[in-house]
Amino acid sequence: MVIHNSSSSLAETLLHRRQRLASLINFPVILWSGYSNPRNFPANAFPFRASSHFLYFAGLPLPNAAIRLESGKLELFMDNPEPSSALWHGEMPKREEIAAAIGADVARTMSELKHRGRDAASIPVQNYRTTLIQSQILQREISSPSHLEGLDQELAKAIATLRLTHDTGALIELRKAAAVSVEAHKAGMSATPKAKLEAAVRAAMEGVIIAHNMTTSYNSIVTVHGEVLHNEAYHHPLQPGDLLLADVGAETPMGWAADITRTWPVSGKFSPTQRDVYDIVLAAHDACIATISPGVEYQDLHLLAATVIAEGLVNLGILQGNPEDLVDMDAHTLFFPHGIGHLLGLDVHDMEDLGDLAGYEAGRKRSDRFGLGYLRLNRPLKSGMLVTIEPGFYQVPAILNDANNREKYQNIVNWERLSQFADVRGIRIEDDVLVTDDSSEVLTLELPTQANAVEDFLNSH
Amino acid sequence: MVIHNSSSSLAETLLHRRQRLASLINFPVILWSGYSNPRNFPANAFPFRASSHFLYFAGLPLPNAAIRLESGKLELFMDNPEPSSALWHGEMPKREEIAAAIGADVARTMSELKHRGRDAASIPVQNYRTTLIQSQILQREISSPSHLEGLDQELAKAIATLRLTHDTGALIELRKAAAVSVEAHKAGMSATPKAKLEAAVRAAMEGVIIAHNMTTSYNSIVTVHGEVLHNEAYHHPLQPGDLLLADVGAETPMGWAADITRTWPVSGKFSPTQRDVYDIVLAAHDACIATISPGVEYQDLHLLAATVIAEGLVNLGILQGNPEDLVDMDAHTLFFPHGIGHLLGLDVHDMEDLGDLAGYEAGRKRSDRFGLGYLRLNRPLKSGMLVTIEPGFYQVPAILNDANNREKYQNIVNWERLSQFADVRGIRIEDDVLVTDDSSEVLTLELPTQANAVEDFLNSH
User: Fold this and answer.
1) Confidence of residue B81 (pLDDT cuts 50, 70, 90)
2) Which chain A residues touch B89 with a CB distance below 8 Å?
3) Architecture per CATH, B7-163
4) B8 pLDDT exceeds 80?
5) What ipTM is given for this predicted complex?
6) Does A404 touch chain B (CB under 8 A)?
7) Whole-model pTM?
8) Domains of chain B: which residue ranges?
9) What is the CATH number of domain A7-164?
10) Alpha helices in A121-271 (DSSP H)
C-alpha cells in the first residue's frame, strides 16, 4: 500500500462522493473490500482486487477492510497488521494513517463492526468468504448482487447513479489507464514483426502494463482467431496473411480500467479484402463516435453501427438488400453479433456485478433479438459517462454454419462472395469515449485507427 | 484447452500414477478441478488454476470437472460446453476427446457424479464454491485440507507419497518451467540498466514467461528492498548503489512450477560490502547443493547453511563467536530468518495446502525455535525429490531493532561493524535442485550464480 502525496485530493474526492450518496439515501451503508483468493494453497493467492463499490468510496485497495457511510460521514474498519507481519511484509501504513489519507472521520478495528450492521445496506462482494462475514455482520442473508432487494437495492441504485458519470478524481485515473493501454497496443504492434506466437505479442503488451505498475483490467485477448470472441488462448503461430486482434486494457492501482481493441495485419499490410472489411468496421466506429453527445440513446449507436456495417457489406456484395431492412431482420448479427459497447469505470463492464441495474435505464429490459440482446448498455447518454465503442466483423463458424441462419438468410447472404473474404476472420476496433457537455472525447485517441495509419505505424517500428 | 500430440505419453503417465495410488489405498477417490474466481464481476474472472491434486491425476486444467479413481481406473466427469458457447469461446474439445487424451476409462456428465460419492475420499479445493459441491456429492462435511481426517487423510498421505518424488512426465514439465524461469531472470538482468522502476524489471521478466505461454507460479518479488521478505510492491526507483532481488518463477500450462531468486547490483558491479555478503550467501548455497544426495536430512542442509552464514559473518566481524555455537543460539536468524527451502512441483511450495503432511516426515513437528520453525521441509531426501535451496541475508528492521534481540545478542553482534554494511539490505540466491540416485542436479544451472559471472552477464547485455 503506497499512499501518494495526492492524498488530500483523494480525501476531497471521497468526501464529495459520500455527500452525493447521502443526498440520495438516508440509511447507513457498510461496504467491504474482500479478501484475496487462494490460488493453489492459502499462502499463494491471486493478486488482491478490492470490491469496486468499496474502492469508489474508500479510494485505496485495502484488503479485509470495511467502511461505514452515514450522512456523509466515513468510518474505516480495518485491523493493523500483526507486529510479526513486519518481518515478512515490512512496515505497512497503520489504520490511522490510512484513515487520514482517505479523510475518514473515525478509524476502528474490524471487530468494532459487530453490532453496527443491523440496519445497514450493503452489496455482496465477489468473494464467498467475505459474503459470509457480510451476512454475519448484517444479521441477515445477503443475496446475489444482481438480485438485490429492499435497502440493498436502493443502495445499488444510488451507487449506480453516482458511478454512471465520472468525477475529476475518477477521470484522472481513467486517463492514466487509457494512456498506458495505448502504449501497450503500440508495443504490441511494434513486437509483431519479430513475434512467432500470439503469446509474444501479448507479452509485449502486458509488459508495458506491468512496467507502469498496473495490472490488466481483464484477461487479454491477443489472437489471430478473432472470430472466437472470448479467445483466451495465445499459442497460435502468427502467419503473414493473418490479422491479429488485440483486446487489452490496463487498470490503475486504484482499480480504474481501460479497454482497447485494435486489429492489425501481421505482415504490416492489409490484404485488399481485409482492408475493405476493416474500413467498414472503422466507418461504424467513427459514425458512432461522431454521434455521441448527451441525450443520445446508446442503443441507437448500436443500431447505427449495425446499419453502417450492413450498408458496407451490401456495397461489398456480401449482403443483399436495403441496410435498414437488413438490420430489422438482424442480418448484420451474422457478422456483428455482440453489442456496440458498455460502461467503463472501476470495472471494465462497469457495475456489471449489479446485473443490468446500471447498464439499463429503469424499466428497460434486454431485447430477445439475437445480437441486440447482448447489448450491455441501454440508456440515454449523459455528460461524464465513459463508454466503449467497439464494432466488429467476425466469421463465427457457429453462426455462419447454423442451419437456421443458412435458411433464414439464404437470399440475403451471397455465400460465394463471402468466401472471397476468408482471410477476414475477426476485426474489432474499440475506443474509450467520454461523453462531454457538448459531444465527446476519445480517451484513447493517440492510438492509430485508420488502416493507413495502422500500416504506417507497423512499418515504421 | 489445447491437447498436444504428446497425449499418448500423458495417458501413460497418468495410468502409472493411478496404479501407484491404487497400490497405496483401496477406496475410491474423487478429485475436483475447481472454478475460476470472479475478480470484480462474474464475467471477469481470475485466470483458472485447477487444483494441483486434480492436475496430478487428470493431467489437463479442465475447469469444473472431476475425476473418480478406483483400483487404477479413471472416470472423467465434465459437461460438454453449451452449444451457444461456441459463439463466444469457439469449438472446444468434447468430453470424449479429453477422455481419450488422458486415458480415461469412462467419460460422464457432472450430474452423473451424484450418488457416486458416498464412500469416496477427497481433498477440498481452494475455492469455496467447489467445496460446497464436494460436501454435497460426498454427503458429508469436508474439512480444511490442512486438517483432514479418516479416509481423506489416508488419501492425502498416499498422494503426498506419490507427489514427493517426480516421474518422467513431471520432470519434463518441471524442466520447461525451470528453463523459462532462467530466461526470465536473464531478461531481468538485461533490462536493469535501462529500468527506472522495479516494475520495469518485473515486466521484462514476466514478459518472457507470458511469451512462452506460461504464467507466474506465484506473485513475483522484484525489489530493491529485499529485506521485506514478501515484498509485492514494485514502485521503487532503482538507484545505482542498490541490489535488486528478484524471486520469479514460471508455471507451465499443465501447472508445474519453478522458483528462482537472484540478487544483482543495479549498477552492474557489487560494492565491496555487497560482494562480501553475497559470497557468504553463495557459499551457503553451494555447500547445501554439494551435500544433497538421497538420505541426507533436509533440516541438516538448513543448519549447514546457517553455519556457513554464521561463519562468514564471523569472518566479516559482524558476528562474534564459534559458528556452531552461534547457530545453536539462533544468532544466524538475525540475518537469515527463513528456511533453506521447500518442496517444488505442481505447487511452488508443493502440497502446502495439506499443511505439513507432505513437508514433514510422519511424527515430526515444526520447531519452536525462531528461524527453524519456518522450515517447510523436514524429511530425509529421496531420489526424485525436487527442492529449492535458497539461503539469504537480510537486514530486517523488525528483527534487528527488536529490543529482545538487541539484548539477547548484545555481545554477539558487532553493531558498529554491521553499520558498514548498510548497502546490503537483502540478498537471496535460490535454485531448484533435483535429488538424483547418487547426488543432485540443478535444474536452473544455466543462470549465473557466482558474483563475477553475474557482473559479467550484466555488463555484456
Assistant:
1) confident
2) 228-231
3) 3-Layer(aba) Sandwich (3.40)
4) no
5) 0.96
6) no
7) 0.97
8) 7-163, 168-460
9) 3.40.350.10
10) 128-138, 150-164, 168-191, 198-211
